[in-house]
Design goal:
Layout (H helix, E strand, L loop, with lengths): L1 H6 L11 H12 L4 H22 L1 H13 L10 H9 L4 H22 L8 H16 L4 H17 L3 H11 L4 H10 L20
Helix pairs in contact: 3-4, 3-6, 6-7, 7-9
Amino acid sequence: DYVEAFRGGESAYDLMPFYRYFWVFNYILFDESPWIIFFALVFLPLVLFSIMKNLLGKSWSIFLIFCWYLFPLFEAFGFLHFYYVKLAMRGFAEPLSNLFFFSSLALIINIYKMNKSVITKEKISYFFIGLMLSLALGLRANILPAFLILVIYIFLVLIKAKKYESILYLGLGLTPCLVMPLHNFYFTKKFIPLTIAAYKDWNLGARP
């Protein structure tokens, strides 16, 4: 039943919309072995190392990654590997969402470093930036503010440079974002842009 598969157990998404679909692919490819979790936990520090190396240099990036693995100094800010291990073991989507978000950020920084601008002739790069940002948002909708900052910034830069074909590639990469409002409207007949998590009292630490 493809309709029920698309519904994913909820008529309106709550908390982690795309995570259920990633687990479907995991079961198809790896049965019950949680390789999707191992993938996120292994590659997230590599992506962070790439970002820090481009921004701070090799020496500082090695030192910070060393801290990432061993010292819980900034656990409250999410800068500790074991913090993501705990989240993954509890079934949360943050590790995978952050992997996609930081991968898009790493690609943007790499483009800037090579071209002294976020403008590049490799238009397909914008597709992958949009796709990774879409998947990050679909996994954890609470990254919306950071998502909007990056998308609006790239969009404005491309508009200013009159790179309309690149904008098209970026837009194509962002199309998975439409899955959330379309899913919610199809099954509830209500316009819910992302999830209903913010409207449920039990999701809040303190009720309004």
